[in-house]
Design goal:
Blueprint (H helix, E strand, L loop, with lengths): L1 E6 L2 E3 L5 E9 L4 E9 L6 E6 L5 E3 L7 E6 L4 E6 L8 E9 L2 E4 L3 E5 L2
């Protein structure tokens, strides 16, 4: 009922900035909270940031002060702005949404932090 399409993956140098986007379509009225997860090789999936429909955000300790999650409910888009990127931020990032119909995942996008 809801589809999530991500964009913005790429290669960025340490200390650099990057922004990911996730556009929702379909029954977007049913979306509650939206999140960004990441999965790095050899590591468990990590909840990076979460934002409620009302705009309240929470972050993993590993990204606090460096990442900002935001959402535009009118455009049905959620963003993850990342600054001061570190090599350990390298991962596949996934957008996720809690909806009335269940949970929905984006397709994932690779972010590589390397010089």
């Amino acid at each position: 009922q809801v589809q999530l399409v991500q964009s913005g993956g790429g290669l960025v140098q340490p200390g650099g900035s990057w922004r990911l986007s996730c556009a929702a379509s379909g029954s977007t009225f049913s979306i509650d909270a939206m999140d960004w997860y990441r999965l790095a090789p050899g590591k468990e999936r990590e909840l990076v940031a979460r934002i409620t429909r009302g705009g309240s955000a929470t972050y993993a300790d590993s990204v606090k002060g460096r990442f900002t999650i935001s959402r535009d409910n009118a455009k049905n888009v959620v963003y993850l702005q990342m600054i001061s990127l570190k090599p350990e931020d390298t991962a596949v990032y996934y957008c996720h949404a809690d909806t009335y119909y269940g949970t929905v995942w984006g397709q994932g996008t690779q972010v590589t932090v390397s010089s």
